[in-house]
Write a structure and sequence with these properties.
This protein has about 450 residues and is an alpha/beta fold. It is about 30% helix and about 25% strand. The protein contains 15 helices and 17 strands. A hairpin with a 2-residue loop joins strand 7 and strand 8. Helix 1 packs across helix 3. It is globular. It starts with 5 loop residues before the first helix and ends with a strand.
Length: about 450
């Protein structure tokens, strides 16, 4: 990690709201100014301002190159992982932690002197932080003597939020420059319980003593740099480490690709998955999180599934809803006045029968994943629309549906045309207050629904 000199820091502070590309072309050459480093810090801060506002509000944070900032966790997803950890451990460890999404600091401090029993005594590459805690999340956090290890530290965003709920928190990372960056940033964030270890996470796992909580975010790139998705193709292969993880921790949280089928992932871990968390933000699936834990019953139990999209959250027992893709068990209502589209986490979970039962709506047809109701539904986890008209694809119906409309927002679900093809056929510009859905209803009828957003 390159430590910026005074001239470079002053340049960053003066220009951090400006366009990085223009700065690269127009910046005056100042003696002792490290322009490449300054541009990296400005670009990093500009990303963090939206993605990690608490970090952006903290003076002294050093940011990595652009690609690492694009790939790191957001504040929302990192805080959610911390919430998972504290909820899991609260009954046993008597931990009380309230994680707020506020970016302001209350300047309250917590002092602790960690007794770090989870590390191998032979480890000589470690460095430790030892600074005052200032929790920028406005949390009033009381922690028991609980311990955690992040075996795949990386840039350290997830670790920084997880660590706040533990009195002992160890970050493990093979790359020295990332360790140096993490040591600096954890100190800047006031995490004096953080301990930085430069080494291989798998070797560290084998040698360490038991802890309360382990976190892993396996690298989803192969040796050639190509993107991978399957659990066994990631580094490390968590399936191979399963028994060791269960032996060394109460719970292990594993971050996986949102592209994976969560049911197959659960089956791959052979009865050790306690919870599945499908995390979306801005209606885009970002993470699939699995909580591993010791089997408490003789027979494997189905995990609880949590579907999260920003402030929309539902959870359910997956054993009670094993027919998530079942269609046609409930007839369509005679009055189809409202249309509902589930959010991305619900779509990923496939718990459509749960949605029918819990919200009193009906699936429009096989694989369409849209719902209708006669009356409005409060707090539906997704988007809601008022249905203005329903028709087929013949010219007469299309003319009636459009009624002179020149532009519309178009979406298709289980429909023979793509959205661009349908837009071209209907000769409509994009945008406006009208929302058109092309879908297939029960009985295999291709229909258009003209709606307005509610």
């Amino acid at each position: 990690m390159t430590i910026m000199n005074d001239e470079t820091r002053e340049f960053v502070a003066m220009h951090r709201n400006e366009d990085v590309r223009e700065l690269a072309l127009k910046a005056k050459r100042v003696e002792r100014l490290d322009l490449p480093s300054a541009l990296d810090q400005i670009a990093g801060w500009q990303i963090a301002r939206k993605k990690l506002p608490q970090w952006a509000s903290c003076e002294g944070i050093v940011y990595p190159p652009h690609i690492s900032m694009e790939q790191c966790s957001s504040q929302f997803t990192a805080q959610y992982k911390s919430e998972i950890a504290q909820t899991l451990l609260a009954p046993a460890a008597t931990v009380r932690a309230r994680v707020s999404d506020s970016g302001e600091s209350d300047n309250q401090t917590t002092k602790s002197e960690p007794q770090l029993s989870d590390s191998p005594e032979s480890d000589t590459q470690e460095t430790k932080t030892g600074v005052r805690v200032s929790d920028s999340s406005e949390s009033d956090t009381l922690v028991a003597r609980s311990s955690m290890v992040d075996l795949t530290g990386g840039f350290g965003v997830d670790f920084s939020y997880l660590a706040r709920g533990f009195s002992q928190a160890t970050y493990v990372e093979r790359q020295r420059h990332l360790c140096d960056l993490a040591e600096h940033n954890m100190a800047a964030l006031g995490l004096d319980q953080a301990r930085i270890v430069c080494g291989d996470g798998v070797e560290y796992l084998r040698q360490m003593g038991p802890v309360d909580f382990i976190y892993l975010d396996p690298a989803r790139r192969d040796e050639h740099g190509s993107r991978t998705y399957a659990i066994e193709d990631c580094t490390p292969n968590v399936l191979e480490l399963r028994d060791l993880l269960l032996a060394k921790s109460q719970y292990t949280l594993v971050k996986l690709s949102p592209m994976l089928d969560w049911r197959k992932a659960v089956a791959d871990f052979d009865g050790t998955v306690r919870e599945v968390h499908i995390v979306a933000t801005g209606n885009e699936c970002k993470e699939l999180l699995l909580v591993l834990g010791q089997q408490v019953h003789e027979e494997p139990s189905a995990p609880r599934v949590f579907c999260v999209n920003d402030n929309q959250r539902i959870d359910y027992d997956s054993a009670a809803y094993t027919q998530g893709l079942r269609i046609g068990g409930k007839p369509l209502p005679e009055a189809k006045n409202y249309l509902y589209e589930p959010n991305a986490s619900i779509m990923k979970a496939g718990c459509f029968d749960l949605v029918e039962e819990r919200f009193g709506v009906t699936q429009v047809g096989p694989s369409s994943h849209l719902f209708v109701s006669a009356t409005p539904v409060a707090d539906f986890p997704g988007r809601g629309f008022a249905i203005e008209a329903i028709g087929g694809m013949n010219k007469k119906d299309i003319k009636r549906l459009l009624n002179g409309t020149k532009q519309a927002n178009i979406a298709v679900r289980n429909f023979p045309l793509t959205a661009p093809q349908l837009r071209k056929k209907l000769k409509l510009a994009d945008g406006g207050p009208v929302y058109l859905f092309g879908t297939t209803m029960q009985g295999c009828d291709h229909v258009l629904l003209r709606t307005s957003k509610i």
